[in-house]
Structures are given as C-alpha cells and as structure tokens.
C-alpha cells in the first residue's frame, strides 16, 4: 500500500516528536539536579515551600517527556493502523509497549528518574479520555493540550506520602521529597498540594476533551450541511434548467400557430393566382412571420421589451384555458381605459400562464373550480388579480412558496419561482394572499409604459 504525502508528513512528525523527547531528557539532566537543590534548601531552611517547588518541577519534567513520547507513539501507530488494517486492540497494546520502551530507554541513557506506575496510569487515563471521544477527530494541538494536563495531574501522585504504600513515587526524586516532607512534618501539605493539582487538572482535561469533541462534531455537521446545501442548489439549478426546457417546448407549440397560417395561406395562393388575393395573402403571411419572429426574439433575449396592450395580454392567457373542462369556470373582468405595458410579451405571458395553471391544478372542495381574473388600472400601472376557490395555503407554507422545488399541490414547484423571476425582471411585483379552505389570491402589478419611459429617461 503506497503512502500518501500526508502519511509521509505524519511519519516525519513522529520521528521529530520522539527525537524531541530524547533531546528533552538529555537537556533536563541539570534541571533534575536543581530539584535536588530545592529539596536540600527545604531541609536546611525548614521551609516546606521549597518542597512544593521541587514537586512542581519534577511533575513538569515528567509530564513534558511523557507527552512528547505519547504524541510520537500515537502518530506512528495511526499510520500503521491505516496501512496494515490492524485490529484496534492490537494497536492499543503496541502503543502502550512502545510508549513504555521509549520512557525506559530515556531514563537509562540519561540517568533520569522515571515512575512506571504513574506513567502507566497517566497513559491509560489519557488514552481512554481520547479514545472514548474518538481522538481521530482531534488535531495535533488539541491532543497535546489534553495529554499534558493528564500527565501533569498524575505525576503529582508521586510526591504524595499517602500513596507510597501502592508503590507510587519510588524513584530517587519523589522518595527524597517525601522523606524531606516527613522530616519537616509536612506530609499533610504534600498530600493536600497533590490533590489540589491532581483533581482540577484531571477534571480540566476531561472537560477540554469534551469541548474539543463537541467542536469537532459541530464542524462535521457544518460540513455535511454545506455539502447537502450545495447538492440542493445543484438540484434546484437542474430543476430550473428543466423548467426552461419546458418553456421552450411551450414556445415551440405557440410557434406552430403562425407556421400553420403560413402553410395554409401558401396553399390558397396556389388556388387564387389573382393579384388582389395574392397581395392580401402576402400581407397576412408577412404578419404571421413577424409575429413568429417577435415571439422568438422575446424568448431568446430576455431584456427585449415591447409596448403591449393589456387586452392583448389577456387574450394570450385566455387562449390557454381548457374549454373542454366542465368543472372549471373562469371569469375575466377587464377594467376600462387600461394603459399599455412595456414588457417582454412572451415571457410575461408564460409567467401569468404559470400562475393560472397553478390555480387550475390546486385541489378544490367545491363542485366547480372557480377562477377569477380581474384587471384594473391603478395610479401608475396595472394590477392583475388571479383568485381561486381552492383549499388555500397554510400561513406556515406561504413563506416557502417562492423556493425552487417547493410545492403544496404535488407539482414540480418551479412555476411560481419562474413567474416571480420573470415578473420582477419586467419591473413588476407579485404577492400572494391565501386563506385555508377559502382560496388563494395572486396579485401582480406592472407599471404602465409611460412610467417605464420616464424611468429610462
């Protein structure tokens, strides 16, 4: 199995950590001598404060060395486990053996004290603490913070006379501290200070590990949510592409009408070769071609705008109402003196047809599905109100109806977002009001052409 660049970096980090562990042991030989000096000062002065300092120095030296070897060991075996797919129990035993061997070699080479019991206890507590919280989630710095707290806490047990019976603190330095404590009658001070450091640091390590784990899990959840959101956006994008494809199909269907007209008129030309008839048919053919060209341009170029009478707009919509549906009743109420609009005719018609189709497919508890289209001139534009007597939309669902893919009637959920985008692109607005069991009202507004001209100027 070939190792990745990342695995090679971990191997290098492992060697560096183990090397630093031995280097630390080498350079701290003089520091261990300073611990002995502190013990002597405590005896000469009768001040137990020097014993506490000596205890702190020894605990710090032990914990740093243990932490370096611990980090190097788990880094090495994390790659080994990945490479050879070894069982977790076997890996755990190998980690423990390597950790102890490294500490023992350092103690032998540099003639420094080591405590097998508290070292084992500290290792076990650290390993369990990280193992239960899945240390694979933890970055290097977080494992370091947790492990050094645990090792520092357990090394204080070495200087506590109360634990001497359990073979804890049996190397030269801890024994010297406890003997000096007995001489100064400060056993209770050493026991109290030991517990004062052991309990808070153990508790702190546990809380720190839990916080790091919670943070890591939150990061994973955020990454999963981001991935899901990205997938949803891709689905929505594909859905909108599919909607555009459907609109193109609808446009192709609309284009058939002028093409049929052209074909029919050409047939008539062949039957009536007189000049007057030819001119009449030619004019009608030209009109049909112009209409078809206008429809294609309007659809292909979304920014194109034309002046359009509201009556013509409603006629296009009315042509889409299925007259064969006997359960559907559509009332159209046009106001007087309606102004012209300045919009993309084809796209706006498609948007309003989408709204109308939504009203036609919605569930209805009445014998007839009644749709009303009311058009009125307002102060600076035209308001088109499309209402139905369907089952309505619950207030909690109203805020979601503009989302792509969201639907309350088992449709694609693309019609309303598409309509909203087209209407707003043409300087219009759309609002929806709905009452459950009564019906839904869609209010569309477009500014009149004169207002658009004013804004453009």
Automatic annotation (TrEMBL):
Boundaries of every Histidine kinase domain copy: 250-450
Major subcellular site: membrane
Record's GO cellular component terms: plasma membrane
Enzyme's top EC category: transferase
PROSITE patterns registered for this protein in UniProt: HIS_KIN
Subcellular location: Cell membrane
Any one GO MF annotation of this record: ATP binding
Membrane topology type: Multi-pass membrane protein
Catalyzed reactions per annotation: ATP + protein L-histidine = ADP + protein N-phospho-L-histidine
Residue stretches in coiled coil: none
Keywords: ATP-binding, Cell membrane, Kinase, Membrane, Nucleotide-binding, Phosphoprotein, Transferase, Transmembrane, Transmembrane helix, Two-component regulatory system
Gene3D superfamilies: 1.10.287.130, Histidine kinase-like ATPase, C-terminal domain
The protein's Enzyme Commission number: 2.7.13.3
Bilayer-crossing regions: 12-32, 52-77, 89-106, 112-130, 137-157, 197-222
Keyword Membrane carried by entry: yes
Protein name: histidine kinase
Organism in which the protein naturally occurs: Tepidibacter formicigenes DSM 15518
Lineage, highest ranks first: Bacteria, Bacillati, Bacillota, Clostridia, Peptostreptococcales
């Amino acid at each position: 199995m070939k190792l990745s660049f990342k695995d090679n970096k971990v191997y290098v980090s492992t060697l560096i950590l183990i090397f630093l562990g031995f280097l630390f042991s080498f350079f701290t030989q003089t520091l261990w001598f300073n611990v002995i000096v502190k013990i002597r000062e405590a005896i000469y002065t009768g001040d137990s404060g020097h014993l506490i300092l000596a205890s702190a120095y020894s605990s710090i030296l032990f914990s740093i060395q243990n932490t370096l070897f611990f980090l190097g060991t788990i880094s090495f075996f994390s790659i080994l486990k990945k490479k050879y797919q070894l069982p977790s129990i076997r890996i755990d035993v190998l980690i423990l053996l390597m950790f102890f061997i490294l500490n023992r070699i350092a103690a032998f080479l540099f003639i420094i004290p080591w405590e097998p019991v508290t070292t084992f206890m500290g290792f076990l507590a650290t390993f369990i603490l990280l193992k239960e919280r899945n240390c694979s989630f933890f970055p290097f710095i977080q494992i370091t913070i947790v492990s050094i707290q645990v090792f520092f806490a357990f090394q204080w047990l070495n200087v506590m006379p109360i634990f001497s019976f359990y073979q804890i603190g049996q190397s030269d330095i801890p024994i010297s501290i406890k003997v000096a404590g007995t001489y100064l009658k400060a056993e209770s001070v050493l026991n109290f200070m030991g517990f004062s450091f052991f309990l808070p640091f153990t508790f702190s390590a546990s809380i720190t590990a839990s916080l790091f784990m919670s943070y890591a899990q939150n990061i994973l959840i955020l990454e999963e949510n981001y991935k899901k959101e990205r997938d949803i956006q891709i689905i929505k994008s594909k859905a909108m592409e599919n909607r555009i494809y459907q609109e193109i199909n609808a446009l192709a269907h609309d284009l058939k009408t002028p093409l049929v007209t052209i074909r029919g008129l050409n047939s008539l030309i062949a039957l009536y070769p007189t000049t007057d008839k030819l001119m009449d048919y030619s004019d009608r053919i030209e009109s049909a071609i112009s209409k078809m060209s206008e429809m294609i341009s309007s659809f292909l170029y979304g920014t194109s705008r034309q002046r359009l009478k509201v009556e013509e707009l409603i006629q296009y919509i009315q042509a889409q109402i299925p007259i064969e549906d006997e359960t559907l009743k559509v009332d159209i109420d046009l106001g007087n003196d309606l102004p012209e609009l300045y919009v993309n005719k084809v796209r706006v018609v498609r948007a309003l047809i989408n709204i109308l189709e939504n009203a036609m497919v919605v569930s209805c508890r009445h014998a007839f599905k009644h749709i009303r289209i009311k058009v009125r001139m307002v102060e600076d534009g035209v308001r088109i109100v499309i209402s139905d007597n369907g089952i309505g939309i619950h207030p909690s669902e109203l805020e979601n109806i503009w989302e792509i893919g969201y639907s309350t009637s088992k449709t694609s959920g693309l019609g309303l977002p598409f309509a909203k985008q087209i209407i707003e692109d043409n300087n219009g607005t759309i609002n929806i009001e709905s009452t459950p069991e009564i019906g839904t009202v869609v209010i569309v507004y477009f500014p009149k052409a004169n207002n658009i001209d004013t804004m453009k100027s």
